[in-house]
Amino acid sequence: MGDVLVVGGGIFGVTAALELAARGERVALHEAGPLPHPDAASTDISKVVRMDYGRDAFYVELMEQALPRFRAWNRESGRALFVETGFCMLTARKMSPDGFEGASYDYLAERGHRLERLDGATLAARQPSWRQGRFVDGYLNPVGGWAPSGKVVAWLAERAREAGVTVVEHSPLHAIERDGGRVVALELGEERLEADRFVIAAGAATPSLVVETAPFLRATAQPIFHFAPEDPRAFADLTVWAADIATTGWYGFPPNEDGIIKVANHGPGLAYDTPATWDVMETRCRDFLRDSLPALAEAPIVTRRICRYCDSLDGDLWIDRVPETDNLFVAAGGSGHAFKLAPMLGEIIADVVLGAQAWPRFAWREPGTGNEAARAVSPG
């Protein structure tokens, strides 16, 4: 048994701490702010949970394993940590096998998943909130939905404490002290802490904290809007949805228990959080809604926040030992879709920290440019 110090209490860090403790390690988890941190990518009222990844067998197979574990979390917690509404993909043109939606439909059907094809008439009958004729093709995958991500992180942190993890909030990382090829201590808050192994899972801050990752990881800001319609029940027909997402980036949710409807953009992201940027993105969002979900277009926004992605250059996660360093590990690069893998992340990270070979898609690498097929390459 050894000491492991985990920096960052988002979905990477909290699942890693919990799994390492389950394997008999002495674990401390330090978070720069409160836990859940309001700026963390994993902290929000909802995150999409879907298995639809085009023909990317790697992620589809991971999600086939993750989804039953999300359901198990509901049973273990006695809470609705996964709400299985289904996941609806919509297209303004007929789906093509070469497009993200068509490829997802064909591949999942080939794997035996039961999907419901949606033409314009079926969509109008099933989900009349959409402007009739706006989307003419798509499908509903009944396997999928959403998770109240901030509540999930809080529950996992609670479990970590119960498992003996020392959880320290408001403890930012200031410096990594190295001696040759080893890290000997971290300066956290006002303390200097030693350990056998160190895991940096600091989300969007990772590229600035671990200099070796700077060429491969970058922080981006994604706009998120929480709408409060006068009558949320009018949108009860909605599932979790993605509307030409690979082209527009727009996706959203049905009303939550507080009647809030989240709409967000899975796109290239923004460099800075400025009033001018917010004005532009709100205009784009309302323009999309007027054209697609007109009854929501003028609803008041009760919250607008930045989801701070930590993007890898190729859209794959980054979970590996830092080269030429014996005991420093990175778990980051979520690229806007890591939360879907939440029930799997702790095991993947713990395996690497305890000496296993990193998974090739997540290993330290010289990536080409690219991104997840669902991600729009220009703002919607």
Question: What can you tell me about this protein's structure?
Answer:
- It contains 9 helices and 19 strands.
- Helix 1 packs parallel to helix 5 and helix 1 (11-22) packs across helix 9 (342-353).
- It has helices at residues 11-22, 57-77, 100-110, 120-126, 149-162, 206-209, 245-248, 275-292, 342-353; strands at 3-7, 26-30, 47-49, 87-91, 116-117, 137-141, 145-147, 166-168, 173-179, 182-188, 191-193, 197-200, 217-227, 240-243, 250-252, 261-265, 301-312, 318-321, 328-332.
- With 380 residues, the protein is of the alpha/beta class.
- The model has no long low-confidence stretch (mean pLDDT 93).
The average pLDDT value, as a whole number, equals 93
Our estimate of the beta-strand percent is 25-35%
Tally of alpha and pi helices:
9
Strand order of the largest sheet: 5-6-4-14-15-16-13-17
Report how far apart the termini are.
Answer: 50 Å
List the helices and strands in order: EHEEHEHEHEEHEEEEEHEEHEEHEEEH
- Profile the largest sheet: 8 strands, mixed
**Relative helix content:** 25-40%
CA-based gyration radius: 21 Å
* Overall 3D form: globular
The tally of beta strands, per DSSP, is 19
User: Which regions contain 5 or more consecutive residues with pLDDT less than 50?
Assistant: none
Layout of helices and strands, plus pairs?
Layout lengths: L2 E5 L3 H12 L3 E5 L16 E3 L7 H21 L9 E5 L8 H11 L5 E2 L2 H7 L10 E5 L3 E3 L1 H14 L3 E3 L4 E7 L2 E7 L2 E3 L3 E4 L5 H4 L7 E11 L12 E4 L1 H4 L1 E3 L8 E5 L9 H18 L8 E12 L5 E4 L6 E5 L9 H12 L27
